[in-house]
Amino acid sequence: MSSRIEALRQAFRAQFGGAPSFFVRAPGRVNLIGEHTDYNEGFVLPMAIDRDVRLALAPRADRQVHVFSLNFQQTDRFSLDDLQQTEITAWSNYLRGVAWALQNAGFTLTGFDAVIEGNVPLGSGLSSSAATELATVTAFRALGNLAVDPVQAALLSQTAENDFVGVKCGIMDQYISSLGQAGHALLIDCRSLAYEAVPLPTGVQFIIVDSGVRRGLVDSAYNERRAQCEEGAQRLGVTALRDVDPAQFERLAADLPPLVAQRCRHVVEENARVLHSVAALQRGDVAAFGLDMDKSHVSLRDLYAVSHPALDTLVEIARAAPGCLGSRLTGAGFGGCTVSLALTEHVQAVVDAIRDEYPRRTGLTPQIYLSGAEAGAGVITAEA
Ligand code: ADP
Ligand code: MG
């Protein structure tokens, strides 16, 4: 019996005086390649990680939801007939928002008692928010036997985060938390929302490192990059940078203001790189995939200018360790995490190098997470 399930079971008994009927889970994620491509209607390649948000649940006969959070040690109670935002138990807005989005889409929901717990680090860029949303959708779906398919589950979770919680996120996090498959990354076309599971080779692992750097600059720099991309697309006469390939870009780049050209070059090449790296995975060429990760980092650092010295240091340390095949910043940048690919037998050496050198060179403490690709949201059937 997993200790996390046992802790949920015990907390449920303490809070509600009985046993939960069932458990659900939804994973966090890491983006392997394809950064700042989503809002240019391009490609991303995330995978679901082995950290998740879980709920232990039992249905209620009324229209109330009572939830105790193990992470926050707080209880929230709300009615499905009166869904309002709350500032007191802010974490509950993700659950309330999902209920709101599901009801707006016409689903009839069942109230429940639950304990919620997660080990996706909160606010580290591994998308604990999407995990919370998808776990909640899964809870309502299972309780009411609702016909919500995994794509709709992702879209309604995004609606909850955008319009109820008030965070303007894209679709990647919810898609991968919902649609992830064990042993696979997920290629997502951010224009059509088409997706394809891409098998990851065995014998390698991903090392996610939280740099410990959080920068306040992110919003303004992000908006500036978006504006530069829009200007580039407009000047090139396309709907989005997604519509330009690297060869076309070579011919047209000289007509753009230099800084706009530099930013657009990252996006155009990064989109091509995602497709190139997917082809590498499909033929089992992990070395080629790793090189694309490296190129992605260099482009984010030099062309898109969204890296940070701490992220560059992490990438440098990982890359210098034998058996590391590629390394890059992941997420919007300016801080947050890196993701590196290593042969399984060399993972420990890469981890040791980071633990040893990173604090010495930066004064910061890294948080290290090892993960393969896990399955997306679902009811927990057999407990590992
Ligand atoms: P990220 O998604 O990068 O982890 P966000 O700021 O988008 O960071 O989302 C973090 C928020 O999601 C938390 O502050 C909390 O409100 C909610 N959340 C995440 N994990 C949990 C959890 N285990 N239980 C309750 N709420 C959670
Ligand atoms: Mg989030």
Q: Biggest sheet, open or closed, and with what strands and sense?
A: 8 strands, mixed
Which architecture name of the largest domain does CATH use?
A: 2-Layer Sandwich
Reported by name, the CATH topology of the largest domain is Ribosomal Protein S5, domain 2
Name the bound molecules: adenosine-5'-diphosphate, magnesium ion
Assembly of the depicted chains: single chain
For the secondary structure, the number of strands is 12
> In angstroms, what separates the terminal alpha carbons?
7 Å
Low-pLDDT parts are none
Instruction: Please report the number of helical segments.
Output: 11
Round the Cα radius of gyration to an integer and report it. Answer: 21 Å
Tell me the count of domains: 2
Helix content: 40-55%
Structural class: alpha+beta
Strand content: 15-25%
Q: Give the CATH class of the largest domain.
A: Alpha Beta
Short description:
The strands form 2 sheets. Strands 1, 2, 3, 4, 5, 6, 7 and 12 form an 8-stranded mixed β-sheet that branches. The mean pLDDT is 96. 43% of the residues lie in helices and 23% in strands.
Q: What does the model show?
A:
The protein is of the alpha+beta class and 384 residues long. It has two domains: 203 residues, Ribosomal Protein S5, domain 2 (2-Layer Sandwich); 168 residues, GHMP kinase, C-terminal domain (Alpha-Beta Plaits, 2-Layer Sandwich), CATH 3.30.70. The protein is built from eleven helices and twelve strands. Bound molecules: adenosine-5'-diphosphate and magnesium ion. The site of adenosine-5'-diphosphate has 19 residues, from β5 and α3.
